């Protein structure tokens, strides 16, 4: 496939025509905050609203996961408007997050911590009131624990789980504030089919799915 040349944060890079700006940046060592992006998924989820960038000639920031690269495109991932939108999206996410890094298994490898650092903002919301969901922790699986209060609804685990075909178990239920990751029958995650594979745990960017060993 044809390549195009574009500039991201002053760095000239080559990317496949049709590639999304997010992947072109990440593959060239330029980090743009993201949670719901899945490279192999044909259509981006575009639900986490974190990957805002500014593109020369555009009126406002765009999401890098939905924007295709183009010849001569000039992208700025550090523009104040883009960072402002990303910070607002992040704060919204953290307003329902059970923040307790000191006692969390993801501490140190958590993508939320990385994003807060990149955006130069606090993990704890400053402008929004924190409203926790206080959902029960599911400890029924012998291999991993599921804490829905730390889930950011990115969908990475659901995508991985779907690959297990007949054994697939995970999906989203409810809407808005009530939306959460669950099993199709809303049964404990340790039941029946889900006793060998920990692919979902491997892709979880937070402390929502954590291994027991
Ligand atoms: S998921 Fe990340 S941000 Fe949340 S408590 Fe755990 S380490 Fe901290
Ligand atoms: S459990 Fe983890 S991977 Fe699954 S949706 Fe929540 S944060 Fe994303």
3D architecture notes:
The protein is an alpha+beta fold. It has a five-stranded mixed beta sheet with strand order 2-1-5-3-4, with helices on both faces. A two-stranded antiparallel sheet has the order 6-9. The chain has a two-stranded antiparallel sheet with strand order 7-8. It is globular. The model has no long low-confidence stretch (mean pLDDT 94). One iron/sulfur cluster binds next to helix 3.
Biggest pleated-sheet summary: 5 strands, mixed
Mean pLDDT across every amino acid position: 94
- What are the bound molecules? iron/sulfur cluster
Question: Which term fits the overall shape?
Answer: globular
Q: Strand tally, please?
A: 9
The first-to-last residue Cα distance is: 44 Å
Structural class computed from helices and strand pairing? alpha+beta
Strand order of the largest sheet: 2-1-5-3-4
Spans of at least 5 consecutive residues whose pLDDT stays below 50 are none
Q: Name the beta content range.
A: 15-25%
The helix/strand order is EEHEEEHHEHEEHE
Enumerate how many helices there are, as a single number.
Answer: 5
Rg from C-alpha positions? 18 Å
Indicate the percent of residues in helices.
10-25%
